[in-house]
What we know:
The complex is a heterodimer of chains A (about 500) and B (about 500). Chain A is about 75% helix and about 0% strand. By secondary structure, chain A is mostly helical. Chain A has a domain at about 280-445 and about 455-504. In chain A, helix 14 packs across helix 20. The radius of gyration of chain B is 21 Å and the shape is globular. With about 500 residues, chain B is mostly helical. Chain B has helices spanning about 10-20, 20-25, 30-55, 80-105, 115-130, 135-155, 160-190, 210-225, 235-240, 245-275, 275-280, 285-305, 310-330, 330-365, 375, 380-395, 400-415, 415-440, 460-480, 480-495, and strands at about 1-5, 60-70, 75-80.
Amino acid sequence: MLQHAPVIHLLAPFYAAIIICIAGMWRKETAYPIAVTALSLSLLSAVATLIKVGIAGPVIYAMGGWSAPFGIHFHIDALSALMAVLIQVVALLTAIHSRHPIHSSIGEKSYLYYPLFLLFVTGVTGICQTADAFNLYVLIEVSALTSYALIAMGEKRSVHASFNYLLVGSLGATLYLLGVGYLYLKTGTLNMQDLNFIMTTRELFSTPTIQVALILLMVGLWIKMAQFPFHGWLPNAYTWAPSPSAALMGPLMTKVMVYVMIRFMISVYGLDAIVDSMWTTWVPYLAIAGIVYGSLMALSQHYLRRMVTYIIVAEIGYMVGAAWLATELSITAAFYHVISDALMTLALFLCIAAMRVRHDIRSIHDMENIFKKMPITMVAFSIVALSLVGIPPTSGFISKWYLISAGIDAGHWPYIIALLLASFANAVIFFRIFEIGVFGKKPAEGHHHEESHDKKYLSEAPFSMLIPCLVISASIILLGIFNQPFIEMISTTISSISGGEVLQ
Amino acid sequence: MENMQSNLPLIACLISLGAVLPICLFGEKRRNLREASTILAGILKLSVVCMMVPLIAGGKVLNFTFIEIVPGIELAFKVDRFGIIFALVASSLWIVTSIYSIGYMRGLHEHAQTRFYAFFAVALSTTLGVAFAGNLLTLYVFYELLSMSTWPLVTHHQDKEAREGGRKYLTYLLGTSVGFLLPAMIFCYLKSGGNSLDFSQNGFVSSFVNEPTVAIVLLLLFVFGFAKAGLMPFHSWLPGAMVAPTPVSALLHAVAVVKVGVFCIIRVFTGVFGIEFLQELDIGQIVSYIAAFTVVVSSLIALSQDNLKRRLAFSTIGQLSYIILGISLLNVYGITGSMTHIAMHAFGKITLFFCAGAIFEATGKKYISEMVGIGKRMPITMIAFFIGAMSVIGLPFAGGFWSKFYLVWGTIANEQPVLLITFLASSLLNGAYFFPIVFKAFFCKPEESLFEDKIEEAHPAAVIALSITAIGTVMLFIFPNPLFDLAKAAATQFLS
């Protein structure tokens, strides 16, 4: 059983999706428990795999017993295993959270939401496990197609946003496929380790074909991860999607693409080849532009979810910039930030959804006295906010610590300054929210005196929405304090990959 | 120097955090129980701190380690003599302030008192965290948490002024700590080989810096990064934060927050750079002159303020720079003076703030020009004010005299007449902005007096509190030895 763990967390959501479709015809209310059970199972399997990888090193799993380079081949190292756990955590919490908002917004057909949800999870989980560049494309499409549908379920404007995303997203995927095609043309293989082996032994990196492939791959991935200036699809798509869909995709889609980018950089092209290229000089500046743009736009938003989407754009800039500083430390920092930012984004979306369900809060201006209305949700929200500002001991502080360390280590001062400015922007954003949330929109007139303490406002979100918020905000603090095992795992894996493990 | 593992620092730090729960549970409906839990926590906290004193005075260093948070760096407490001095001051004054708060907040029927007491307790926990921090990262963690937990206190009134004050407060404190401190700290961490940011006698900067310019830049990043110390030009959050209720101004902006700032700077001088290394490079002077400038300018500004709390705020800025000036003299007298001035100024200034609050609570007056003749109405308050003022000016029969004595001695020992003159001129200015208030309160002509000739003090809890601190100020003059013994031992240890 345990040797199949790497596929359980891929297949459990997949089969659950099919079962729900069938069972849903009979009883619609079975959808929710089946989805939650399947995701709990896959979380267990992902954790088991992570522990196994942590103890015994990378696991290789050949699908159906067909060995590489002919069959499809899962190569699971600590990075993949960590991503798998992250994805399952996000998916499980979002699934638990979905019950209330989905039933109230979609109603009758809400059971059909869960199969799409689970297929999306299958797609992104697969992306992080596979060692085959073409297989990866297929899984990108699986997750993308389901995400178009998940977005289009939202309010009126969501259909338009989703269509826009479909056009841009397909373009990104096509560019990626084209890049893989070029790689195949030159090397004759699609297996990532094979690709790296052939490219290094035949010194193909400087050939035009491989260079063009790199450009195509990166632009394709940047479109998918919404790196500035390819971010245009993201704000609308995630603003108008139903809130659980946004909570699922916001943390996962973009971060998984960052994972793929890092995977290509270290496992396919190899860090040495990347360092030698010109890319490391200019990509960080692209990232800086993204950070500045995202932060400024986030500052100017009033609509909460839209604000979060621009924060995502800025955070993607953090990761892309750190990844392309291209030192082992900087990639470790980028990877840790992938995890920590996924949790923070999820927590933001969940809290915002909770506020909306109870008090129809959509913009900052609706948040008056929210701390009195929903004290527990707001505790979770405050923790996330402080983490985004970078207040210790949250995970946001630790990732900022490593990102700045990476910047100092690489001597890239503009990147550090951009990071610091983005922290200030987040501070302004969230303390403005605190001000409105605690003190009300308009300043009190004159000196304030004792108020009556009626509790008529107090109305917390339902438990199924509250628990995920609390779990995730607690995990942000825990990930910050107990960051050492994670950092160690990431950095040893990265250094073993870039240390030429493939050459044996 | 003997290291000893102990849970006491953690317990002392967490007691007030633990008090948050009963405070919130009792709430406004059972406010007597709520206040009782605050005071009980304060007494427990002080007694735990007092339990540590004999151990530390005996030369031990108490250690407590949580967990490694960055490779080579742990979240850790390390309590030495300097830390315990600060912890003693903060935790003893918390009790007095709690008593005072009861009078002040109830007397004025303030809103959201539960929030007030809860965040006050959190702020005290983080203050002790700073006092006990064993390395730069731990210090930073608690420093930031202190800013966060005091923001709701500063903006307590929720009106326009309070919000602006709060924004300014965060902008300055967060801006400097994230903008200067964090990069400087990470730079040190990376350059020192990523092993340790522990405070130690010789510091860790000397291991990787040998050019004076780099050292100066680094030192200034640290000194300005700890903007809680109110060194110019990063001082203007302090008068802005005076919109807070007076108990907050009293404890946090005369004792905890600002003293955390100077405490951190002294830690940087003694534990990060090491006094010897600074003497070698001879870069203490730059900081001395910035501090001297701040001392003089802030005293001049204080002269022109009519709002009593703002005047006190500018006086605080000047007094904080005394402490920075003292440490930057880099000799045993200066350092002893700095450390003891933290305690002496705390007692004097808190008395002054208590008096300002008591006046406001009893009469609604905020401006000095409205306080003519107030001595007839509130004699106890104004006598306490007089004692506090003497301490801040540095006159005998108040504790401030001794610490100022050491500071002046430090400048003489270093043969720096300019700094000596700064101290003396500033004392004159202090007198010039404090004595007229007291004088007019008692000795105005009957027709000038704005108050009737009838004694009517503030809420009794407030009067008790300000009497306690005033008596404490005098006691510190009569029995300064325990404090000075600790401080001298700490200073010689830093220098050896």
